[in-house]
Amino acid sequence: MIVDILRLVGEPALRRLGYGTAQLTGPGYWGPRGERADAVAVLRRAVERGVTLIDTADNYGPDLAEELVAEGLHPYSADLVVATKGGVVRTSDSAWHIAGRPEQLRTMCEASLRRLRTETIDLYQLHRLDPEVPLAEQLGALGELRREGKIRHIGLDTVTVVQLKEALGLAETGSIASVQNRFNLIDRKSEAVLEVCEAHDLAFLPWFPLANGALAGEAAAALDAVAARHGASRGQIALAWLLHRSPVLCPTPGTGSLAHLEENLDAAAIRLSEEDLAALR
Fold first, then answer.
1. Closest by Cα among 149, 152, 147 to 122
2. Which of 42, 121, 221, 279 is 20 to 30 Å from the Cα of 131, by its Cα?
3. What is the model's pLDDT at position 219?
């Protein structure tokens, strides 16, 4: 059960509201964004505020985000879930190359272990399915790493319902713990994937939970009345909506700003009414 695996679903809202590290790196998730000490301070403050899920990836930087997580949070507390991703190689700020051959996945996972300074990665997510490699081979490589104790649980990023069901049929029972698809208040294309996650008790870590800046546009104007009722920002209402939408949703908004971090985490205390939810629906 995911309740036992991640200790997120069913826990108080703040524990379902995690922290994503992409914004600790520069534009295009390439290179540093600012001072290293500032990034470390944000990570430590997130954990001080009760965050129990840190979501990172080997290609944020590349390598940099994982190094910052280790610098700021190692040794990791027993209740902290550190999730990372592999399966994509970066060669520039705009070049992404899917790399899902078993030997590539093993090499990337072992490099993440070294950067994170850990013997076991709590949640290792396949950043993209490689269309050139049979899914059974990709999951087989991760299953082998799991049996060796190098990862505890497997996650999938950006999958369709058909791909998710196929993966669940191929993987060892209980090894797949999460899905990470794009999902937010104004982009709900993965509703059907969310339903499968609910049926199988999988955590759903929505990427771009704040719609990557689009909440400032007219498409999200309905947020204003709800936000005014709660004395909150548009972003806070969008995060609160995700927490209300499904108990398996675990948003991991990212930021490099301490002030923005505090604002995001305060969204956990917002209780939306039926009127609010109807307006946002």
1. 152
2. 121
3. 67
